[in-house]
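Can't attach files on this board, so I'm pasting raw text. These are the components:
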Amino acid sequence: EAGVAQSPRYKIIEKRQSVAFWCNPISGHATLYWYQQILGQGPKLLIQFQNNGVVDDSQLPKDRFSAERLKGVDSTLKIQPAKLEDSAVYLCASSLRHEEAPEAFFGQGTRLTVV
Amino acid sequence: GENVEQHPSTLSVQEGDSAVIKCTYSDSASNYFPWYKQELGKRPQLIIDIRSNVGEKKDQRIAVTLNKTAKHFSLHITETQPEDSAVYFCAASPTDSSYKLIFGSGTRLLVRP
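---
Top answer:
Structure tokens for the assembled complex are below.
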């Protein structure tokens, strides 16, 4: 079974520039999550999609972060403009999200460095 | 909202010894508690999980216990091996059926050969 795919693996940008990350979830997984993992911390949920609708974006800094999931499959997360404190690993995860299979499967992540 | 605290932040044990990592959660209605292992530069991977209707679950050398009254759950690794060295994260899932995960801050486990 193919896992969650993310690209790019690494990205270095200057502050105030924009950047976009891409995620392809496991086939058939309706739920997609974007997490931010700052070095030395646990992942923090940024946004959750169910199909192409947003379920939870309460922790997404909406003045600079945006995300979309067109057609309910792939998703992109964008940061514009980036700040130094956005340096982190951005993890995408997907799940079937139901009582019998709540497990979230993570992608390899995109390591963002803002200089 | 849910808040998860995890202790200790680092843990060093001798190969063959046991390791215990503890987490507490704030939302008494949370009902799903997974544990993830993250090796350096790799993705978090689920190693074991427990539902709120169960007090203990075992899978070979790893076990998880849940105390709903005290709102804490623990990961137990027996007969530790060097390949168990990694960062371990606990998480809790609120009962709003979204199954979003609120993570603890992680425990770096080092198993000394």
